């Protein structure tokens, strides 16, 4: 290759670079679209849009222990140092009585509980009186006494940890546990 050919090739290269440099660039699209692009993967709801469905997940079988816990409620609460059933517990205990009348083969145990304050003996006695109060209420609503056992756990089975008013209030309760006759 001679010198002249090399100069011509260099000139063509310089012209090509100059033409490329002078070509107007395509402007960058800086406008944000108003709508999001279509999803490419599975869509997940961002907010509840209605009841959850799908194979009765979480549904309680009527007459089962879960039905009792979820649809009736298995616990009532008491004031400090009291074993008197509070008026706000009446609807729950009435619902328990109705449920127990509907399922006459179910046997229950009322478990009386107390908060952490007080001696062990005092809390055992208080829990026993709370369990007996709930038992008497249910018997007064027509549930045979032979279907109901009572026990006191005193302060031995707290449902709320801690030494706060809220924890103490939750631990002053009577729990209605199904012993037999219901599907688990």
| Pattern of helices and strands | HHEHEHEHE
**Total number of helical segments?**
5
CA radius of gyration is 37 Å
Tell me what portion of residues adopts beta-strand conformation. 5-15%
Helical content, roughly?
25-40%
Query: Reading side by side through the largest sheet, how are the strands ordered?
Result: 1-4-2-3
Main beta-sheet strand count, sense and barrel state: 4 strands, mixed
Shape descriptor: elongated
Describe it for me?
The chain has 184 residues and is α+β, with helices and mostly antiparallel strands. 38% of the residues lie in helices and 14% in strands. The protein has five helices and four strands, in the order H-H-E-H-E-H-E-H-E. The protein has a four-stranded mixed β-sheet with strand order 1-4-2-3. It is elongated.
Q: How would you briefly describe this protein structure?
A:
This protein is of the alpha+beta class and 184 residues long. The chain is 38% helix and 14% strand. Helix 4 (120-140) links the parallel strand 2 and strand 3.
Key features?
184 residues; alpha+beta; four-stranded mixed sheet; 5 helices
Task: Please outline the helices and strands.
Blueprint: H1 3-22, H2 65-72, E1 75-77, H3 90-102, E2 107-113, H4 120-140, E3 148-154, H5 165-171, E4 173-180
Parallel strand pairs: 2-3
Antiparallel strand pairs: 1-4, 2-4
């Amino acid at each position: 290759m001679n010198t002249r050919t090399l100069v011509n090739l260099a000139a063509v290269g310089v012209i090509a670079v100059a033409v490329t440099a002078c070509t107007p660039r395509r402007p960058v699209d800086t406008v944000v679209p108003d709508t999001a692009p279509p999803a490419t993967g599975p869509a997940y709801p961002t907010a509840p849009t209605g009841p959850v469905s799908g194979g009765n997940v979480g549904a309680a079988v009527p007459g089962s222990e879960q039905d009792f816990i979820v649809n009736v409620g298995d616990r009532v609460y008491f004031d400090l140092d009291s074993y008197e059933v509070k008026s706000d517990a009446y609807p729950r205990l009435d619902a328990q009585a109705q449920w127990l009348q509907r399922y006459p083969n179910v046997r229950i145990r009322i478990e009386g509980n107390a908060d952490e304050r007080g001696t062990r003996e005092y809390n055992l006695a208080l829990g026993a009186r709370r369990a007996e109060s709930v038992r008497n209420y249910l018997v007064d609503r027509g549930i045979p006494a032979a279907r109901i056992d009572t026990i006191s756990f005193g302060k031995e089975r707290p449902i709320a940890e801690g030494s706060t008013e809220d924890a103490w209030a939750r631990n002053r309760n009577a729990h209605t546990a199904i012993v037999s006759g219901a599907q688990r």
